[in-house]
Design goal:
Maltoporin, Chain A; globular; 22-stranded antiparallel β-barrel; 5 helices; 58% strand; mainly beta; five-stranded mixed sheet; 700 residues; disordered N terminus
Length: 700
Amino acid sequence: MNNKAFCANGAVVLVSLALLPMVGEPARAQASDAILDEIVVTSRYRAEKLSDIPISITPFTIDDITRYRIERINRVASLTPNLRFSDDQEVGVSTLVIRGVSQNRGTGQPPVSFRVDGVSATNNLLTTQDMFDIESIDVLRGPQGALYGRNAIAGAILVSTRQPTATPEYRLRFRAAEGNDYMLAGSASGPISSDKVLGRFAFRLQDREGQLRNAYLGNQLVDYKESSAFRGRLLIESSDKLTFDLRAQYIDQDGGSGYFMPGSNFFLPLPDPNPPIIVDVPEYEIQSNKLGKSFVKASELSAKIDYDMGWATLTSITSFTDVDSGNDQDLDQTLVEAIDILVIDESQTIAQEFRLVSDDDRSLRWVAGVSYFSQDRFRSLGTTFLGTEVPPAAQDLELENLAVFGNLSYDISDALELTLEARWDEETPKDLTQGRSETFSEFQPKASLSYRFREGLLGYVTVGKGFRAGGFNNVAPGSNFPPGFDKESLVSYEAGLKGSAYGGRLRTGMSLFFIDYTDMQYFLFDQTGTQANINVKSSEIVGGELELTAQPADSLLLNLGVAFTESEILEYEEVEGVLVPASEIIGREVPGAPVVSVNFSLQHTASLSGDLDLVSRLDYEHRGKTYWTLDNVDTQSAYNLTNLSFALEKEHWSARLYVNNLFDEEYIEWFFARRFIGLPADIAWPSKPRQVGLEFSLRY
């Protein structure tokens, strides 16, 4: 069966599965009266039921975060349809793909707006940060620029930390796992001077020796990590109308870097007329000739001020972020000492947003706002080639973004709602090193029409435009890549259905989408140290998601997520520096996202005595075939991952035994082909091995 036939059948299956539990009687009597908790989200800046919002959302509650052991976005991605996240070079560096729209590395930008407590992560290195003391996480799919700003071309990830509490509260969590992996986290919360001033302090510390070894460096562990993170939060109720939410955070991560594995024989280029030397190296073994090191240090200050004017709430969010990072690694990733690289990356960012949100109790509800973003970023990539240092790829970049945005929701009737959104962005990057500047602007409209067929059953259609600004590549002398890349945009068409059935014991949602993608940005690099984004003129992506949550009995909880994508590169023009001709790229799939993915969870709770429960969880994830390159030659075949955990839980403490990657599945997290980047060998990022661990938590 070809991809088009498979995806067509997949769409039929998604629709059928989503509709099946919703047709007929909405609330027939059953043997069990277990009811799922109603989930309330604030994705449109007001509290609304998940089932009332015409957006494809995967929510994670505080219980989900605890029992799924969510500590980074990679775990969120494994539980979210059409979201893929991989760590693939060093602490801070990752590749995130949502609905086929991919991360731009280097000085590029992610395809989602990543926000913590309403503050945007202003540097792409911050999406890998450890998450601790978290209240909720919501993943929004589809363009979200109108409400969540720059880079929300394909979605938004909204993280909310736990708020200060009016009564004293203390939490402590300790973990020990294979790889001498130790973690300690805790928090303290309560009133400071009165019930009008509340404070919360949280921290997380980790020390891991690692599990992956380099046999060519005396079996040294390469995936080591030391990290510390601290957060303080102050909530001040100045009056019944005015509140201040002040937050400070510091992150310090040190770890291994560049432990890619060669995926092909190594060739050593020599000056003409000498032919290159071919060196046989063991494929898919970590064998760099130096131990890679990397770090990310980040500090952030933010102030959120809310003023209730009676008819609307005025919100101001001000933030300052300072990020300092670097790495020292073997770039060729083989046992031959050919290419080393040293990276320095520093940035300082100021962001300001003013937002006005109308009251809820009216048929016409609206949001209006303006935002400003300013960043100074210096990035240098120094390369040593065959023992000789070459001029670095250095870039001193200033970036400014100014935007206005708005949202309007109107109840045409009790059952029918129309939502209109728009955002206008003007972004100007200035490459001071090369003396270049360009302004990218875009108007991004979005419209949704939703209809409530009955209580607990909502259907919607949405069309919206997404935008990601262009910029300048970090080009080293001798590189053939162009100095800059253009903006990209897409138009997304989506139809969805969500609701509940069987008296609240089943919650389900499905969506089908089509993306018309223009000037897609795609990341490449070469042996000079250049990191570049290029543009692919025209592509299209079609796909869908299905999510089911069921509680057939008080003791049993089931989760199912299914996703598929099919894509095609329609137009591609030759780009200088890309060694593969256009004829081998046009007609291929957009790389980066699994064609099919499935995640399934089964949780059983057994009451042992009094308030002591035994909670058993099985989490299964299937990742289908993934294309790594524009010409689709290199692929990752389908594989399956299984996690298992058993927890004893009481009101004030819990103990959990867990196993990640139960069957020790080996796969490739990410892959770069030498025919695109000019390195001496293909390189592949290894998967994490099985890990067994114990975790203890105290709550008072």
